[in-house]
Amino acid sequence: RKEVEQDPGPFNVPEGATVAFNCTYSNSASQSFFWYRQDCRKEPKLLMSVYSSGNEDGRFTAQLNRASQYISLLIRDSKLSDSATYLCAVNLGALTFGSGTRLQVQP
Amino acid sequence: DAGITQSPRYKITETGRQVTLMCHQTWSHSYMFWYRQDLGHGLRLIYYSAAADITDKGEVPDGYVVSRSKTENFPLTLESATRSQTSVYFCASSVDNEQFFGPGTRLTVL
Question: For the residues A1-15, what does the mean pLDDT come to?
Answer without folding.
Answer: 90
